[in-house]
Amino acid sequence: MPYLGLGVYLSEDGKEVTNAVKWALEEGYRHIDTASIYENEEGVGKGIKESGVDRKDIFVVSKVWNSDQGYGSTINAFEASLKRLNLDYLNLYLVHWPVKGKYKDTWRALEYLYEQKRVRAIGVSNFMQDHLEDLLSSAKYVPMVNQMEFHPYLVQQKLIDFCNKNTIQYEAWSPLMQGHIFELDIMKSMAAKYHKTIAQIVLRWNLQKGIVTIPKSSKKERIKANADIFNFELAQEDVKKLDQLDRGKRFGPDPNNFDF
């Protein structure tokens, strides 16, 4: 699983998302993250096909939406996503949110798809430790990934430690705090210190913490810039400074209190 991917949340289906995927693949990205609820899987699939990059070299991720959760409906949702993407398999399929009373049946469906080799890896998204512990009590397979809101204002180190202990790869969504990261003075000073953009500093911090990151952009120059994070390293003192910004602040929904 490549540590850097392209997120396509809110990228419009059609030309916008297709171009974003093609530009990302041209720049060396090999990880594309979408979901059925984003309503852009067709455009993502078109971008993959038009890129000319061999399918086997691209790590493609999608997610089952809440209204499709349950055993049979998850399998149907998976097949529908594959059809829209125009692919034969997915590299990773995720349970998008821990829908109470449903996510265990949903997980059984993912386990079935994994055993049938329709998907190469299975995981979850927005699962807190109690959700994971509940799932692990009956799961045949440990989730291979947990995709969470993660940024300097929401580190959740205890959850990261729990995932690491159980060999669950932690992955960040909204690593740039939905744009609020650019308002922080500490980020401006670090960007000046390293001669990098604020986005590059944050994404590099993700990597040094061993966290997969999928910044979203549909702009060619930003997609290119976001990938330019492998030629420098943050000092450990700066990694700690960013860790210490943690204030438990979410910009997205609370996994313990959502109603969709």
From TrEMBL:
Leader sequence residues: none
Presence of keyword Thylakoid: no
Domain of life according to the entry: Bacteria
NADP-dependent oxidoreductase domain location: 15-246
Record key words, sorted: NADP, Oxidoreductase
Gene3D superfamilies cross-referenced by the UniProt entry: NADP-dependent oxidoreductase domain
Entry annotated with the keyword Oxidoreductase: yes
Entry-linked InterPro entries: AKR, Aldo/ket_reductase_CS, NAD(P)_OxRdtase_dom_sf, NADP_OxRdtase_dom
Entry similarity comment: Belongs to the aldo/keto reductase family.
UniProt-recorded name of the protein: Aldo/keto reductase
Organism: Arenibacter arenosicollis
